[in-house]
Design a protein that fits this description.
Number of strands: 37
Distance between the termini: 29 Å
Number of helices: 10
Shape: elongated
Number of domains: 2
Strand content: 25-35%
CATH class of the largest domain: Mainly Beta
Structural class: alpha+beta
CATH superfamily of the largest domain: Glycosyl hydrolase domain, family 43
Radius of gyration: 28 Å
């Protein structure tokens, strides 16, 4: 991984911070507005301060004592009193120099939207400009965050969600950002007239982020256009109105994303929050047998009784770079075959290959259709027995994807005692896949599976159907889309288990992202890594994973072909986020 400045590292939770947040608490009113006092605003700020992120807070003489009382001893928070530096705020002084010659918008809240308030909103970029010049934490990225950003939501769970997402923002790598990234609610403005007297929510205003040079460029264009706007229109609009005008009239091109005045305001794309692992990886390409009309695809790994067993799925299609299927079948039917091998201990090279076959079973009847075979097999050890779980359609009596479970016999090369397993919500089930077999519970003498990740549903099989045995609420960022990927490996010298999960974003092709998740001995999640991808943000699938000599071995496929063993040292994952369940 990139080497980071040590002063940006919080040794307590091993998070490497890359972003400085900038905000302000300036008391411009004679009393509370909308029932917000300085005390209540400082209490609300706790959600942001408790992220442990690096924050520059611009304060005045009234607000500084409230903040010093709570945060003066925190190394991650710098209080900067504007009293001694106000003359250096060019945007602030531009507004005040024309106060007697300009008007305020007609359609505003007169108690809140005063001249002082609107000027303060424009001064966000003054504060950022000053913070970049001082740069007390040595950051490359700077983000504006409203002091009471969490006031935009009411429920404590939503406030906590913003807190968690800001922790993701705090560790973004600078190379993932090319422009100012800013959320908004509306499409681009098409008329200057509207913004003179009405708020325009093209941009939300409460949050944005960029590299130092991005933000400084934003500051310069804001200052330049503000002067011209005030001279031309004799009106001081809200800062978000001016930003919409700059985009409309001046060709400013930030990276806009759809947000709102709720949790979505901070929901940066995983493309921005993710880490590319390829620069830190070693790759092993293995030779697999040629099967005419088929290509090797996803690979599932398990160390079973001292043998490294690998299942290789073969498919009769190829994906184009846009994600379209080219199927090698006269009727466009998709077929899957599976090969098994035992790997050499030192090199992971396959020793031999056998094609796996379904043993005869009265419980399985082929119902035809256009998709055949066992897909994306996961191998797992159930109380000493090597088992498999796979997605299947042609044996499913519901004519929808269901799961098949059975024994995986490496001697006879057969799937034995295969059974269709239904979800607990059989009537509404549409497409079952990516169930995660958990390590066998010696304590309860039971085999559990993770069926869902939001909420987390831990299940066991009863009469060929899942039964929920435990539900764990999960409000972590990205986990509303997470699916299972690999089985979980026991971490050495601990009673914890680690595995890989994934989620995808629609596109041409889809973009896949992955995370490592650590469970405790009760299968409760306790921490997770930032999102990552292997080579590129595209169709990369990982259903094989193991840990050896401090290295993480990911068995991945690229565009459903070209399987490889992708190896990175565990130290690459220097940042972890705690689950707060």
């Amino acid at each position: 991984m990139e080497t980071h400045n040590k002063r940006n590292k919080n040794d307590d939770n091993n998070i490497v911070y890359m972003t400085t947040f900038v905000t302000c608490l300036i008391d411009i009113y004679d009393g509370p507005v909308n029932n917000k006092t300085l005390e209540t605003r400082v209490c609300e700020f706790e959600y942001i301060a408790s992220t442990g992120s690096q924050i520059c807070v611009y304060v005045c003489d009234k607000s500084e004592p409230f903040l010093k009382e709570r945060f003066e001893n925190l190394e991650t928070i710098r209080l900067i009193n504007i009293g001694n530096i106000k003359e250096s705020f060019a945007i602030y002084n531009t507004c005040y120099s024309q106060k007697d010659d300009i008007e305020l918008p007609v359609n505003r809240n007169p108690k809140k939207d005063t001249f002082e308030y609107i000027t303060l909103m424009h001064s966000k970029l003054d504060f950022l400009h000053h913070a970049i010049g001082e740069n007390p934490f040595g950051s490359e990225l700077f983000a504006w965050v409203d002091f009471n950003l969490t006031h935009i939501v009411n429920h404590v769970l939503e406030k906590q969600y913003i807190h968690k997402y800001l922790k993701q923002v705090a560790v973004i790598q600078p190379n993932k950002i090319e422009r100012v990234i800013i959320p908004g609610c509306w499409s681009k403005m098409n008329s200057v007239d509207y913004i003179l007297d009405n708020i325009h929510w093209r941009f939300c205003g409460g949050f944005f982020i960029g590299k130092k040079e991005n933000v400084l460029e934003f500051y310069e264009i804001h200052l330049k256009i503000l002067k011209e706007f005030l001279r031309t229109y004799k009106k001081l609009p809200w800062e978000v109105n001016l930003w919409a005008y700059i985009e409309y009239a001046c060709g400013w091109t930030p990276e806009w994303f759809s947000g709102d005045h709720n949790c979505r305001m901070v929901e940066l794309s995983p493309r921005i929050c993710s880490i590319g692992l390829a620069p830190y990886a070693s790759i092993r390409k293995h030779s697999f047998p040629n099967i005419p009309g088929f290509s090797p695809s996803s690979t599932s790994y398990i160390n079973y009784n001292g043998n490294q067993v690998l299942n290789i799925r073969y498919v009769n299609y190829k994906l184009t770079s846009q994600g379209y299927y080219i199927i090698n079948h006269p009727e466009n039917h998709i077929h899957s075959k599976n090969m098994m091998t035992i790997l050499e201990e030192a090199t992971s090279s396959p020793k031999y290959f056998y094609e796996m076959e379904l043993a005869e079973s009265d419980s399985l009847v082929c119902h035809g259709g256009s998709i055949y075979g066992l897909e994306d097999i996961r191998l797992f050890n159930e109380n000493g027995s090597l088992k498999f779980i796979a997605t299947n359609l042609n044996y499913s009596p519901t004519k929808r994807n269901n799961m098949i479970i059975g024994e995986y016999n490496t001697r006879t090369h057969q799937y034995e005692n295969p059974k269709i397993i239904y979800s607990y919500d059989r009537a509404n089930s549409t497409c079952e896949k990516n169930w995660v077999p958990l390590p066998y519970s010696e304590k309860n003498k039971a085999q559990y599976f993770i069926f869902k990740w939001c909420p987390i549903e831990i299940c066991e099989i009863e009469n060929d159907q899942l039964k929920i045995v435990r539900t764990i609420q999960n409000r972590e960022p990205f986990f509303n889309r997470v699916r299972g990927s690999t089985i979980f490996q026991e971490l050495s010298d601990s009673s914890e288990y680690m595995g890989v999960v994934h989620f995808s974003e629609e596109g041409s092709p889809r973009n896949y992202y992955h995370m490592l998740v650590v469970l405790d001995e009760s299968y409760t999640p306790i921490r997770y890594s930032p999102c990552f991808y292997f080579h590129n943000m595209t169709v990369e699938f990982c259903i094989g994973f193991h840990i050896k000599n401090g290295e993480y071995h990911f068995w991945i496929s690229n565009f459903d072909k070209d399987p490889e063993e992708f190896i990175v040292h565990s130290s690459v994952f220097s940042t972890w986020f705690d689950f707060s369940l």
